[in-house]
């Protein structure tokens, strides 16, 4: 055990954020902490590092536990350089080196045994701490998070907020903490840096807990998800995609248990009512006592809405919406990218990715006419009406209240209509009287989307539209854009979003190439990886025709040839697994976990080893059930 939370509760001004939260983190676990904005995720981190105290409950940590925290906003004191700031994670090695240098000078005249022994001890400690490789490690990590060697001499006080966050990430990864606490680590990272971080964390030897809205990142870096909902914590085995499936199964099971218990209670109360004063009064009183002691199963609470971003009907544009031919973009004489060729048809969605500073936002501003193209040809089709969403939300006027801001795109609309429309974006009642300057990042993002959607544009040009949204709001936006009949051009580092929305990709590569690909992000990523593995000289040209994967004739034939009796048996077995066996396996795992958390057991190594082996066996059984369940579903489909 690294640390354990037992029945932690925390309130602010009478508002309960956490209620009886309990979970344990063990060595090597890779955990994603998810929940809506305001669910208490960052509060949990603050409790763990001792910045805040819980109202009730206990936090038990392994003796000498070293927690490393990456906060959403990082700052640096003094005037150190990027390079020295990264190396500051190795202060203990620097201290050893300094003492070794002093002893080396002393040993020129002093060859006494104590001095020689101390020097030998320091040499051993220096080697054990990887003293010969730490500088190379620091430089590799700096490059991984996006600091090229030419930027290592920059003073930290000159860095932007995003650069400081990336430098803070580098320093933390070099710290050798026992547990990393990462709060939105992919913020300010481009796709290449995020993919580098994913690979680094997959090979990372110790435990970490990640707060992130990046679902693709959680899928690739976690093997356990803890969800904070309604102040409570629920733990799920597996990555984010598996969590979604398991959570749905658990909620269905909980709802069935609730309904069964409610039916049982109703029947029992009817029995008590009819027999309390009759011949069976003793039985009636016994059942009444039983009901009073009964632990009630809660009904599944309906999920809080992420918003309803359904777009209004838009005017139909021409078939060819956007075409560029050998387009060059940049500022003045500075060319950021050239040879950009786009062919986007009505109803298509172009996803744009690339490193920071490669020209993604510049391309969007060129497309909307804010910046002139440097060379080449840019043509918008007939009847196109373009709406632009800026990642900096700079179209919002800070002094306006929400309703006044909406009137900038709807000057003649009635108040009641605007209030009704804003409610779809989770602005209710007095919310609409808030000033823009007082809104959170997520609220500003929703307001900017509300303005854009109300304006009924048939082409949406979006610069990082998910940046300020939590996961439910991202899912609501994806649903709306998926149903949108217009055309979309979007820059995004949210690969889950691009998989759902994009029909073609435009990638700004680090070598200056700009590649167009027909498909979503994962299809492009896999194509690119295959080309690189095969040793292809160039990634261009990319496929411009989308090929659907071939059907699997053998599987399809076997599914179609199942008899009615076989189908019934499969359906029965699926119900057994869903309704009984998975729940029993999870209950067993939960019970073992509780036993592992008992203080008497944690101090008994033999007992812990036995429980760990039993837990592994139980988890393997659960995995086998899921594998069987998935196989059966595949046969039905």
Helix content: 40-55%
Q: Flag low-confidence runs.
A: 545-559
- Tally the beta strands: 18
Label the CATH architecture of the largest domain: 3-Layer(aba) Sandwich
Share of β-strand residues: 15-25%
Output the CATH homologous superfamily of the largest domain: P-loop containing nucleotide triphosphate hydrolases
Rg, alpha carbons: 29 Å
Ends distance: 42 Å
Task: Give the CATH topology of the largest domain.
Answer: Rossmann fold
CATH class of the largest domain: Alpha Beta
Strand order of the largest sheet: 5-6-7-3-8-9
Describe the global form: globular
Integer count of domains: 4
3D structure, described in words:
The protein is 45% helix and 18% strand. The protein is α/β, with parallel strands linked by helices and 637 residues long. The protein folds into four domains: 200 residues, P-loop containing nucleotide triphosphate hydrolases (Rossmann fold), CATH 3.40.50.300; 39 residues; 144 residues, Rossmann fold; 83 residues. Helix 3 runs antiparallel to helix 4 and helix 9 runs antiparallel to helix 10. The two termini are 42 Å apart.
Helix and strand arrangement:
Elements: E1 3-12, E2 15-25, E3 30-34, H1 41-48, E4 56-61, E5 67-70, H2 82-87, H3 91-106, H4 113-128, H5 134-144, H6 161-173, E6 179-183, H7 191-202, E7 207-211, H8 215-221, E8 224-229, E9 232-237, H9 240-275, H10 281-293, E10 320-331, E11 334-345, E12 349-354, H11 360-367, E13 375-380, E14 386-389, H12 402-407, H13 415-423, H14 441-454, E15 459-463, H15 471-483, E16 487-491, H16 495-501, E17 504-508, E18 514-517, H17 521-533, H18 553-560, H19 564-597, H20 599-602, H21 605-636
Parallel strand pairs: 3-7, 3-8, 5-6, 6-7, 12-16, 12-17, 14-15, 15-16
Antiparallel strand pairs: 1-2, 1-4, 8-9, 10-11, 10-13, 17-18
Helix pairs in contact: 3-4, 9-10, 19-21
């Amino acid at each position: 055990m690294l640390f354990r939370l037992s029945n932690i509760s925390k309130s602010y001004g009478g508002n309960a954020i956490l209620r009886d939260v309990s979970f344990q983190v063990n060595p090597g676990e890779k955990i994603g902490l998810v929940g809506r904005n305001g669910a208490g995720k960052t509060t949990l981190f603050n409790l763990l590092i001792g910045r805040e105290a819980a109202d009730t409950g206990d936090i038990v940590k392994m003796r000498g536990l070293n927690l490393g925290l990456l906060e959403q906003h990082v700052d640096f004191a003094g005037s150190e350089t990027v390079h020295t700031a990264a190396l500051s994670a190795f202060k203990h090695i620097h201290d050893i080196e300094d003492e070794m240098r002093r002893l080396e000078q002393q040993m020129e005249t002093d060859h006494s045994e104590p001095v020689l022994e101390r020097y030998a001890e320091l040499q051993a400690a220096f080697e054990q701490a990887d003293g010969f490789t730490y500088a190379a490690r620091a430089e590799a990590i700096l490059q991984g998070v996006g600091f090229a060697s030419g930027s290592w001499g920059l003073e930290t006080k000159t860095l932007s907020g995003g650069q400081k966050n990336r430098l803070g990430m580098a320093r933390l990864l070099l710290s050798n903490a026992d547990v990393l606490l990462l709060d939105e680590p992919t913020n300010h990272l481009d796709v290449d840096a995020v993919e580098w971080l994913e690979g680094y964390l997959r090979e990372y030897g110790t435990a970490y807990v990640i707060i992130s809205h990046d679902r693709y990142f959680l899928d690739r870096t976690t093997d356990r998800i803890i969800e904070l909902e309604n102040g409570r914590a629920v733990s799920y085995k597996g990555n984010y995609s598996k969590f979604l499936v398991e959570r749905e199964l658990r909620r269905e099971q909980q709802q069935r248990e609730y309904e069964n218990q409610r039916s049982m209670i109703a029947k029992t109360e009817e029995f008590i009512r009819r027999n309390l004063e009759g011949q069976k009064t003793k039985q009636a009183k016994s059942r009444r006592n039983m009901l009073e002691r009964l632990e009630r199963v809660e009904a599944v609470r309906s999920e809080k809405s992420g918003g309803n971003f359904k777009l209004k009907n838009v005017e139909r544009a021409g078939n060819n919406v956007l075409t560029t031919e050998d387009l060059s973009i940049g500022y003045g004489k500075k060319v950021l990218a050239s040879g950009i060729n786009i062919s986007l048809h009505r109803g298509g969605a172009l996803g744009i990715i690339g490193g920071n500073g490669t020209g993604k936002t510049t391309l969007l501003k060129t497309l909307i006419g804010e910046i002139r193209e440097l060379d080449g040809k840019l043509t918008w089709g007939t009847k196109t009406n373009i709406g632009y969403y800026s990642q900096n939300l700079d179209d919002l006027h800070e002094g306006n209240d929400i309703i006044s801001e909406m009137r900038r795109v709807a000057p003649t609309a009635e108040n009641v209509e605007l209030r009704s429309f804003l409610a779809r974006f989770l602005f209710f009642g007095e919310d609409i009287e808030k000033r823009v300057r007082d809104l959170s990042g997520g609220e500003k993002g929703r307001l900017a989307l509300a303005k854009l959607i109300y304006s009924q544009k048939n082409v949406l040009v979006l610069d990082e539209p998910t940046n300020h949204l939590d996961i439910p709001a991202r899912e609501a936006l994806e649903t709306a854009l998926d149903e949108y009949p217009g055309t979309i051009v979007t820059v995004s580092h949210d690969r889950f979003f691009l998989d759902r929305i994009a029909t073609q990709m435009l990638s700004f590569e680090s070598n200056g190439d700009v590649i167009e690909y027909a498909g979503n992000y994962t299809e492009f990523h896999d194509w690119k990886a295959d080309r690189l593995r095969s040793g292809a000289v160039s990634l261009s040209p990319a496929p411009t025709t989308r090929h659907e994967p071939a059907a699997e004739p053998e599987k399809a034939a076997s599914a179609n040839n199942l008899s009615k009796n076989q189908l019934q048996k499969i359906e029965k077995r699926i119900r057994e697994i869903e309704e009984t066996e998975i729940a029993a396996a999870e209950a067993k795992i939960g019970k073992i976990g509780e036993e592992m958390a008992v203080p008497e057991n944690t101090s008994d190594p033999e007992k812990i080893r036995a429980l760990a082996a039993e837990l592994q066996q139980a988890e393997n059984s659960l995995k086998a059930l899921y594998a069987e369940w998935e196989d059966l579903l595949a046969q039905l489909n």
